[in-house]
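Postdoc handover notes: sequence design on the structure in folder B. Input tokens:
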């Protein structure tokens, strides 16, 4: 029997996420919470990263954590890995996700704080497509946000249909500690005249510089002429 990995995502809105993680790992591995806690402490496998607000435009307020418990069941050649994890942002957002408070990283485990994110989110940087209802086709294209001066022009140049297009953006500037995520999102929607095909072109970034090893800041482009959306969920 070879080893297996069991991932356990924990809600970023949990009121007691660390204990929830220990209980989830214990239930999955068949061990007691006390045994899991002792093993995690001994292995030093509780890791966390946070990027707190330091000044306006510095500190994204993102946080992440991960707990790993290795247990070798009878008959297995190698130990199984049980990994619980979560991530969130503690700031209030104008039209975006709800704030998720930073967990207490000293109870009941003392976490090793990392100088860089434990894992990276985001979608594929390349194009993708798929068939829709009734034979209609949908093509989604993700455009890198690193070249801020040209990203909107690049998005406009990809449009291949004559109906539309609709140019929309959402931006949540950072106003102070716990207020504003700095995230922005741009989207172009266009469709064929007979509605049998649609293309969605997307880009996004964060205008806040990380003070603790996160990705570089990407200031929002000049959205002159684009329609501002006040709710991020209207964009996706």
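Designed sequence:
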């Amino acid at each position: 029997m070879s080893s297996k990995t069991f991932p356990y995502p924990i809600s970023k809105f949990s009121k007691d996420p660390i204990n929830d993680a220990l209980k989830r790992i214990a239930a999955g591995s068949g061990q007691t919470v006390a045994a899991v806690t002792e093993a995690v402490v001994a292995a030093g496998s509780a890791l966390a990263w946070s990027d707190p607000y330091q000044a306006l435009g510095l500190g994204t307020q993102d946080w992440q954590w991960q707990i790993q418990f290795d247990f070798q069941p009878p008959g297995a050649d190698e130990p199984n890995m049980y990994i619980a994890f979560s991530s969130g942002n503690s700031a209030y957002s104008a039209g975006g996700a709800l704030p998720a408070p930073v967990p207490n990283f000293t109870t009941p485990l003392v976490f090793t704080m990392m100088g860089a994110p434990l894992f990276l989110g985001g979608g594929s940087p390349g194009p993708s497509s798929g068939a829709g209802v009734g034979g209609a086709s949908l093509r989604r294209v993700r455009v890198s946000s690193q070249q801020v001066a040209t990203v909107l022009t690049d998005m406009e140049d990809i449009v291949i249909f004559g109906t539309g297009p609709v140019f929309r953006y959402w931006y949540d500037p950072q106003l102070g500690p716990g207020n504003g995520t700095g995230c922005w999102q741009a989207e172009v929607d266009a469709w064929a005249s007979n509605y049998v095909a649609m293309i969605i072109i997307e880009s996004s970034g964060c205008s806040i510089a990380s003070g603790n090893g996160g990705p570089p800041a990407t200031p929002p482009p000049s959205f002159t002429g684009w329609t501002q959306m006040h709710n991020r969920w209207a964009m996706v």
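Context for whoever picks this up: The chain has two domains: 5-113, 128-234. Don't rerun without checking with the PI first.
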